[in-house]
Design goal:
The protein is α+β, with helices and mostly antiparallel strands and 252 residues long. The protein has six helices and eight strands, in the order E-E-E-E-E-H-H-H-E-E-E-H-H-H. It is elongated, with a radius of gyration of 20 Å. It binds zinc ion.
């Protein structure tokens, strides 16, 4: 059966002299790995090799979900331009590669997440337009939080994840922590039970409790939040994401 979908390439590796294995995040079908036979030939059904962040319409045959699908067509949106200009901006490119790595690792094959697809597409579009490092960090943090939400791992950020005391109304001297094992913020009364916790500055805690503040935050605060998120993704995946070090090196 041939299936049509709208998709973004999140991984592309050479399979042979002429073919590639590509992973697409498709809007209706979810994550799909497929062989693109002949995609590296000068004339193919794919307008040349498929690159990461290629975006457009795909057609694939998928008779057996245990095996690789076969990509039969790829038609790029935007007249073939896609998100190729990302490669002109290293901080944007690294942030997008990091987002794609996390998306690939936190979603399952054939598990549709249309909202996450839309969020990822918007993230790539914003990344292509934005150029300041602080903007990129803010965009990345917001995408990472929407990724966690969409895959069912939304962290508790408006209250202590353990005792449920609301974050709002806390006295300024209160210490706030983030714990990966608690999946969210942890208050001073509870932090002793969570050895993996990281202490947050007041600014970072305020941003996490009120995500609207992220867009106007200073780079220092964003780096602190991203460091906490990298720690959290490392705990979730059982290893440090490969792209993490490139993104945290964004700071001067
Ligand atoms: Zn608590």
């Amino acid at each position: 059966m041939l299936i049509k979908d709208t998709a973004i390439c999140i991984r592309a590796v050479d399979f042979s002299e002429t073919s590639q294995i590509v992973t697409f995040f498709a809007r209706a079908a979810g994550k799909i790995s497929a062989i693109a036979k002949g995609s590296k030939r000068p004339k193919s059904a794919f307008d040349g090799p498929i690159e990461i962040f290629s975006y457009g319409k795909i057609v694939f045959s998928d008779s057996n979900k245990e095996k690789l699908a076969t990509l039969t067509e790829f038609e790029s949106a935007y007249g073939g331009a896609g998100f190729t200009s990302l490669s002109n901006n290293l901080s944007a490119l690294n942030s997008c590669l990091f987002a794609a790595e996390l998306l690939n690792n936190l979603t399952h094959d054939h598990d549709p997440h249309p909202q996450l697809f839309d969020d990822f597409l918007q993230f790539l579009q914003n990344a292509q337009e934005g150029n300041k490092k602080t903007e990129m960090l803010a965009l990345l943090i917001l995408f990472q939080l929407s990724l966690l939400k969409e895959v069912g791992l939304r962290p508790v950020l408006n209250a202590c994840a353990n005792c449920k005391t609301k974050y709002e109304g806390r006295k300024t001297r209160d210490e706030i922590y983030f714990s990966s094992s608690a999946n969210g913020l942890v208050c001073r009364d509870c932090e002793a039970s969570f050895p993996d916790k990281l202490r947050l500055t007041k600014r970072a805690a305020n941003c996490l409790a009120n995500l609207k503040l992220i867009a106007e935050s200073q780079e220092k605060t964003l780096i602190e939040i991203e460091t906490v998120l990298v720690h959290h993704f490392t705990e979730l995946l059982g290893r440090k994401p490969k792209m993490a070090k490139y993104v945290l090196n964004l700071s001067p």
